[in-house]
Amino acid sequence: MISQKAKYALRALSALARGEEGRPLQISEIAATQNIPKKFLEQILLDLKREGIVRSLRGKQGGYLLLRPAAEITFGEVLRIIDGPLAPLPCLSITAYRRCDDCDGELSCEIRHVFHRVAEAERAVLFSATIADGIHLADRAVAEAPEPVDG
Amino acid sequence: MISQKAKYALRALSALARGEEGRPLQISEIAATQNIPKKFLEQILLDLKREGIVRSLRGKQGGYLLLRPAAEITFGEVLRIIDGPLAPLPCLSITAYRRCDDCDGELSCEIRHVFHRVAEAERAVLFSATIADGIHLADRAVAEAPEPVDG
DNA sequence: TTATACTCTACTAATTTGGTAGATTTATCA
DNA sequence: TGATAAATCTACCAAATTAGTAGAGTATAA
Predict the structure, then answer these.
(1) Which nucleotide is nearest to B41 (CA to C1')?
(2) Which residues does A48 contact at the CB level (< 8 Å), separation at least 6?
């Protein structure tokens, strides 16, 4: 399971991506429309800012903007920023490799090989899917849904 | 990341799979050879027993045995028993589906569609890989490793 | 009948998760 | 120039989870 925080981050980015190009969205607007606790969202957006995903404007008329097009922000990088390493085992992490201290050899480890495959499968999806894709998939699903019969 | 407990469970099952057919392995043997805290391993094996993965014999000469061949125990089912639902979102879990309370529609959710793909990719690996596969991959990797030059 | 090995229940310390609270800084507008 | 609106920063907190320990109880084989 990904954390609630990561969910909020991805949904906040979707909101920013849906916003008007160039017009900043304020924390409270995003919090209200996406049902995210405002003070929590503040922290999340600061994290995303530090990592170069969004930028901010202070003062009246301030708010947040995407720093890159939504089609260039992947789920994988956002998840890494918010939840940390994606790998299922520390010894398989690209960004935070750490030997398992109870394990006595990565070659002979009976679970590492299998989880290596898991990690690759996950990464293939997470780094090919972008915020823009998420929006597109959602919009298409809604458009293709059977019309609710009225009456 | 999977939990330490899940790692222990999978390695304990590998140990049982490597053991002599029909000869039970004791908790303390497994704990010693696999570097697992004994009392913690006790609990893990009880969980696996309750879920029909292993069986136990009490008293002298007692111990644990696999209830099914190692080639029929998948990583996925073990992970589910120890760590709970595999899905990245509660609304994507097969065994523990739960609506996201802050989300107002699964079709229109911008992150669900992407994570649905992640979940499928993960499951494809986790439910095709068995304890026997893990052992086989490890043994092959060791056999194929370049001989360490002695001298 | 006793030693051995599994079983059960309870407890605990440390970390992570999912937030709140409040003071501060910066920019805009009147 | 001063009020106001917005982001920023630091600190705190409760609940849940993780990774175990402790110890008494129970079944069984020799």
Answers:
(1) D20
(2) A9, A12, A13, A54, A78, A81
State pTM to two decimals: 0.94
Q: What CA–CA distances, in Å, run from B4 to A90, B8, B35, B129?
A: 11, 6, 12, 19
Look at residue B151 in the predicted model and tell me its pLDDT: 57
Q: What are the boundaries of each domain within chain B?
A: 4-66, 74-129
Distance from CA of A55 to the nearest CA of B (A): 22
Which residue of chain A has the CA closest to B12? Answer: A110
Residue B122 and residue A12: Cα distance in Å, rounded? 26
Contacts of A29 (CB under 8 A, 6+ apart): A63
- What is chain B's pLDDT, residue by residue, as a tens digit (151 residues)? 999 999 999 999 999 999 998 899 999 999 999 999 999 999 999 999 999 999 999 999 999 999 999 999 999 999 999 999 999 999 999 999 999 888 888 999 999 999 999 999 999 999 999 999 999 999 999 999 887 777 5
Q: Which residues from B are below 8 Å from A121, CB to CB?
A: 121-122, 124-125
> How many alpha carbons fall within 13 Å on the CB side of residue A110?
24
CB pairs under 8 A between A and B: 121
Question: In chain C, which nucleotides are within 7 Å of a protein Cβ?
Answer: 3-10, 17-22, 25-29
Q: Which of A133, A123, A126 is nearest to A13 (CA)?
A: A133
As a whole-number percent, the residues of chain A with pLDDT over 70 amount to 99
Pick the CATH number of B4-66 from 3.10.20.90, 3.40.980.10, 1.10.10.10, 2.60.120.260: 1.10.10.10
Nearest residue on chain B to A84, alpha-carbon basis: B1
- The reply to whether A39 has its C-beta less than 7 Å from any atom of strand C is yes
